[in-house]
Write a structure and sequence with these properties.
Helix content: 25-40%
Number of strands: 7
Structural class: alpha/beta
Shape: globular
Strand order of the largest sheet: 2-1-5-4-3-6-7
Number of helices: 5
Low-confidence stretches: 1-25
Mean pLDDT: 81
Strand content: 15-25%
Largest sheet: 7 strands, mixed
């Protein structure tokens, strides 16, 4: 089953640029090119700087019951494509404001996510600016952006029963 998923992902990487050209992207999703997020060390991450790579961005919260499954699934995807022109990121929408119930500092977020996937790159959208600009309303929500910077896939949820994680996103 895992080998089949890997084969499907690999074939998608070949076809992804063509699919991106044929995919209808709504005006709200055109903003994906201007997405600005924050790294856990305080640097600014611009999606536009990733042009030339296939980018997988998974928006979620450590407060959701599926975080323990979605984060490792993304880490497996990132590990499989290490060394290729594919970048996989988990984007936390958890608040960073001190005094807000459920908020997490960068260090706390790093500690929580490290239990699931110590090598996965974590980004932050604590004010939900990117999340709301893309008109998302549920987590986890995952988007795939083509090498040309076009949004080619959006997936809401996680099928914990499939055991394939997010491997089908790149197929």
């Amino acid at each position: 089953m895992f080998k089949r998923s890997i084969w499907l992902i690999a074939s998608m990487l070949i076809w992804l640029p063509l699919l991106g050209a044929a995919c209808h992207v709504s005006s709200a999703h055109v903003e994906a090119l201007q997405l600005k997020l924050r790294t856990l060390n305080g640097d600014t991450f611009f999606l536009s700087d990733q042009r030339g790579k296939v980018v997988v961005l998974a928006f979620g919260s450590v407060r959701t019951p599926l975080a323990g499954q979605t984060i490792p699934a993304l880490a497996r995807l990132a590990s499989h494509y290490a060394g290729h022109e594919v970048a996989v990121y988990w984007v936390s929408i958890d608040s960073a404001k001190a005094g807000v119930k459920g908020s997490l500092t960068d260090a706390e977020l790093q500690a929580v996510t490290a239990r699931y996937a110590p090598k996965l790159t974590i980004l932050r959208d604590p004010e939900k600016i990117a999340f709301n600009s893309l008109q998302f309303d549920a987590v986890p929500t995952v988007i795939v952006v083509s090498r040309q910077g076009e949004l080619v896939r959006e997936y809401v949820g996680f099928d914990a029963e499939s055991k394939r994680g997010y491997s089908e996103l790149l197929t």
